[in-house]
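Two proteins were folded this term; both appear here.
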Amino acid sequence: MFTTEVNDSRSLAAWSTQQVAIPILSWILTYIAMLVPETILARRATNLVMDAGIEAFLTTILFWSSGFILAILIRQIFPSAAPTGKWIWVLPTLLVVYLIAWDFAKVGNPIVLIEYFYPKGEQAWIAYLAVFPTYACIAYSLGMSAASSKIVKRFIRTSPTSLQA
């Protein structure tokens, strides 16, 4: 009496595409955006380098915001991507949790976990390859959920000319 057909291959393909594309696109957008402060610092003084804490803070903000903005844009272009896009946070989050648990079990000292959230030196690769892209995936999933809300739909469809009237 009640039947629902789900095209699993299309859903898996959409999820896989988003799972790969969002971290890469977020990386590209963040890299381009980080060129601005680096250029400003380079023009002010030749020996001035951005502090690791400031760089980590800016990178975190840029990955979160790029993921969220990509979700809003992709939702508008490909509305069918929303159901699978809401779930791309799961795999990278599980990976980061596993990496943190592995390092903590191996070393046993919580100080080793700083490299995940305050990247500095040679250990920074773990944050830039795992943690920051995970932020983008979480923000993308939140953006996909928010893009389906009535408030965001109303905001996106409201044109600047209709606000003036």
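Next, the second protein.
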Amino acid sequence: MRKSLLRVLQVRRLLEESAGRDLQIKTAELRRLEAAAEGQRSLAAEARSSALRQAPEPDSWLGMTDAEIFTWRRQRFEAMAHRAGDEVAALHEFRMARRTERQQAEALLRDAERELNRERGRREQQRLDDWFQSRPSPGSRRSK
């Protein structure tokens, strides 16, 4: 039984590690999307500012169009980041579930080890009791 519990524990550890790696990957993606959204926000603000400075020029509407494009792209990145954030939260919950399963397997293994040690102690005590009972009593010794 101990070997099977060790195997279960090993599998649980692997599942927890895998869930942790998935969480790290998705968190990195979330941070990348958030940084991209912030970059687009900066570009949109810069394009608007530039377009407003060039307002009297005939091509100033192109700057405003660029600003709108950057704003649209920022919104897209923010929406993707929001979805990735939801996935990160779900992966975090999944990892916590894997951790709980691993901890339960560890507890089972500890309980099995304790029970094995108790049983070993009982057997040792029984052997010792049997040995003492099998010895001749001090009054029954034969004298030469």
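The domain at 2-128 is CATH 1.10.287 (Helix Hairpins). Residues 30 and 82 are 8 Å apart (CA to CA). These notes refer to the second protein only.
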